[in-house]
Each structure stands twice: as C-alpha cells, then as structure tokens.
Design a protein that fits this description.
Layout lengths: L1 H19 L5 E10 L5 E10 L4 E10 L6 E12 L1 E2 L4 E18 L2 E21 L2 E12 L4 E11 L1
Antiparallel strand pairs: 1-2, 1-9, 2-3, 3-4, 4-6, 5-6, 6-7, 7-8, 8-9
Length: 160
C-alpha cells in the first residue's frame, strides 16, 4: 500500500513539474539499484529538471522487494546535481540531497516497520547515447541514523 502511494505521489509531482518544463529540460526514466546492505536489489523511477546548463534537480522513488529475510524497503529522494561538461557526450556530477526511507519486515507475529530521514552524498556519470537519451551510473551514500549504506545504480532517461 505504501508503494502505491509513493508511486502516485511521484507521478503527480512529475506531471506538475512537466507543465512548467521547457523543451529539453525534463528527463524521465527508470533505474536499477544495488544497495551494499539489505535489501540489496531494487528498481526505481527518476525525474530530473535541468534548471540551467549546470544545475539539475532530481526526484526519485525506489523499491527494494522482500529478500530472504522478508525485509523490504522503499525510499524517496530529492537531489541536486552540479553538471561538469567533460565532453559533448560525457558529464560528471556530484550528488547531494535528502531521502526518506521506509523499512518493513515480516516477523512471526506480524511485521516491523520504520521510517527514517537522511541525506545523500555521492557522484554520477552521464553518457549521452543520443541528444534525448542518457545513460547514467551513480554511486552515493545514504547517511541515515543507524542505517547508513552505499547504493549504486544505473538509469536510462529520456529527455523531453
């Protein structure tokens, strides 16, 4: 149920932001995540808005399905990127932002859940396959009270 609300909220947010976007400024895509602690594999949706030639804001929602320990997670992230234009096709960017993470684990007598707020810090690399199709690889660290972890992901985004 939480995941449906999360995806609905992200969809509304991205729909509203696209109404104000100019051509070539809005990016939407999907990503595959790997967390270096449980749960490890996840998938997500990403939306980005290019403020100018260097600054970009990003909203992302990720879901990590239940693993063998019956632990699942979802998170929502709001990040800021500063784009370094290495070449016409390659871009590098530091990542900084906020995250809200929710954990749920099935146990014998029900389930345990916890929501936490933290910060993201990391870096990414963008390869422009075409002018309107970008491949991104990122590694960042979720700094969350008692649950810090590193995450790496690969995303494919389309530029509108």
């Amino acid at each position: 149920m939480k995941m449906k609300k999360l995806l609905l909220s992200l969809g509304i947010m991205l729909s509203c932001s696209s109404a104000f976007a100019q051509s070539g400024k809005l990016e939407l895509g999907a990503k595959l995540n790997y967390g270096f602690s449980e749960p490890t594999w996840g998938m997500g949706l990403v939306g980005r808005y290019n403020i100018d030639n260097h600054f970009r804001v990003e909203g992302a929602a990720n879901y990590y399905p239940k693993n063998e320990n019956k632990l699942e997670e979802w998170d929502v992230n709001a990040n800021l990127h500063y784009i370094f234009h290495v070449t016409e096709r390659f871009k590098l960017y530091p990542i900084g932002g906020l995250c809200i993470t929710s954990f749920n684990q099935d146990i014998k007598d029900g389930s345990l859940g916890d929501d936490k707020v933290g910060v993201n810090i990391g870096a990414g690399l963008q390869f422009n396959i075409m002018s309107d199709l970008h491949l991104n690889a990122e590694t960042y660290y979720n700094c969350i009270n008692k649950y810090d972890r590193a995450i790496t992901n690969v995303s494919l985004v389309y530029v509108f």
